[in-house]
Amino acid sequence: MSALIYFHERTHESELARMVAKKKTTTKAKKPRRPKPEGGGRRAQNKEAIRKRIVSAALSLFQTNGFDATTTKAIARKAKIAEGTVFNYFKSKEDIAHYFFEEEVDHAIAQIRDNPRLKKAPLEEKLFALVHSQLEFLTPHERFIGAAFIHALRPASPLGIFSHRAQALRHRYIGFVQELFEESLPKQNSLTWLAPDVFWIFYLGVLLYWQNDPSPGKQNTLAFLDRSLNIGVSLLKQGKR
Amino acid sequence: MADHTHSSTKRALSMASAGASVAGSYIGYLLQRAFLGKERGEARLRSTHVRAARRMRDEMQSLRGPAMKLGQTLSLQTGTLPDEFVAELATLQMEAPGMHPSLVRAQFKSSMGREPEEIFKKFSPEPFAAASLGQVHHATTREGEMVAVKIQYPGIRQAIENDFNLFRTVSKPAQASGHISKAAIDELEQQIVAETDYEREADNIEFFARKLAPLSFVKVPRVFRRYSSNRVLTMSLMTGEHLDSLLTHRTPRKLRDLLGTNLFELFYYQLLKVGALHVDPHWGNYLFTRDGSIALVDFGCVKYFQPETLNYLHRVFLYRGSCESADFRRILEESHRAAGQELLPGARRALIRFSKTFYRQVYPPRPDEQREPFDFGAVEFLQEYLREAKNVFRTKGIMPDLIFLGRAEMGLYQTLHRLRARVPTSRIVKKYLRS
Predict the structure, then answer these.
(1) Closest approach of chain A CAs to the CA of B366, in angstroms?
(2) Tens digit of each residue's pLDDT (9 = 90 or more) over B261-308
(3) Cβ A226–B110 below 8 Å, yes or no?
(4) Is B280 an annotated catalytic residue?
(5) Contact A224 B99 (CB under 8 A)
(6) Which residues contact A24 (CB under 8 A, 6 or more apart)?
(7) Which of A132, A209, A218 sits opposite B102 (nearest CB)?
(8) For B40-58, b where at least 16 C-beta lie within 10 A, e where not — what string?
């Protein structure tokens, strides 16, 4: 999801950040402010379990009551912890939402990288698998995603598009897509530099389509994704010089 | 909504571009012909046919769905299309572009709620056969049975509806001239849309498994309902050879005659005894074995006939009197009236002519007078069938209920022709006619 929330005009600054982010993704996807498990000790495990409880409670409330109507107090009650404890982990409910979107991108990248069969798959299949794993991750929280879209469009929204955290995540995602393009397309392809950004915008379109797809099992989204990726990749391949 | 429009526009553009490209090939040929000798001109025409046919096949494949169905139907039209076209379009039957494994998984999970590997002991992500609306994968159940899992292309129903909307628009001139009736398009759409419901197909399989049990040479798969849904169909794995593979070896005449006779008997048993017919006759749907058995592997397109239609067929098949008699005319008129259709004089003449020139020849009314089995090896009977059938269509002499029978009949003749089979036609039909 995250897409619209983190989308913004391309700037020199973002280009630079992308290069930095790309470097990071080639090794192991690491996010700016993620808690590091400390050697798997019991304390660390407990902390991680509480964090998961908070996120799960928040998502459940975002889904049923809506993002705006959900308070940190309600999240604490649902997670069966004190409200102060929530603040030990997250600054605000927006912070929880950011964490969720980071999880989504991490999950999708891991799904592609941890699947040995996909290494040799054609580009259109890799991109399909990437977007599909994002959509699968988002499916239980569909209502919240719709609300987050609207929220992100508000100029003063903390979920909005200009926060550093949001940009960093977007750069990491685009950097990963860039890697996929580079490992599948010839180096001299004149469109490779532009394609990840275009893909980002395409992803926004898919997300909107998915949100409004009434077909059983979101059938039409799968068809739309499959056919448009086939066309897009085929155009890219024709663009080699 | 906008996306659907976009999708149908894309499909329309794709069809239009295929049409333009095919037309372009022929314009190029016409220009070059002026400067070529007769022999070189003919060779160039053949290569133009091949180029145009390939282009058309590729576009139909990329569109999948009803466009492919249309291609398959055209591939059964020996005698009306250049041979190069038939050869290319015939490959549509087996070579639809597959869904990649990630799409297969997504589609399976969206329909069954779980990954294929969570349901089956083994599942092959690569398909072993393509169907026009889906593809088929090998799998093994938890109980250890080998099965075929048919998975539908996503969004195919929407694509069919879009294509038919488009088809209704582009066929307006043909509808106005009376070459295609609205009832015919409705019937076509209804049947093809019905093919997208795999639960209905599972019902069809079970129906035919029961009804065809008396025919020992026919094999019908078993449905695994717990591993099936409206977009996934799991069946027992059938074995045998496709027609093309069978014909690549030297097939003894005896076997060709036996398979042809069995195929013919299967057709008329369904039509006259069961009252329902497997009407997707392309040869990808049959598997033949060397002992003469026939396995049926696709029950998506099944036509259940109205009692009035069946009554009509029982009355006109092997009609002993003259086709020009008042009695035969009365049967035609009564039957059309019973089906809610007025039989126009032109249509009546076309039907009488069809009966006289084609059916009398292929199905002599007195089986005991049929000394030799009918030889389907000669191409003339197919050309005659097509000419007469077209005439009946043009004069609106066909009842909508029988549109798919025409298609199935053409498929049967085409397969018998490829087998070069000799079949005691009238003897078999007589066995199943009501006395």
Answers:
(1) 55
(2) 999 999 999 999 999 998 876 777 899 999 999 999 889 889 999 898
(3) no
(4) yes
(5) no
(6) A30, A172, A175
(7) A132
(8) eeeeebeebbbbbbbbbbe
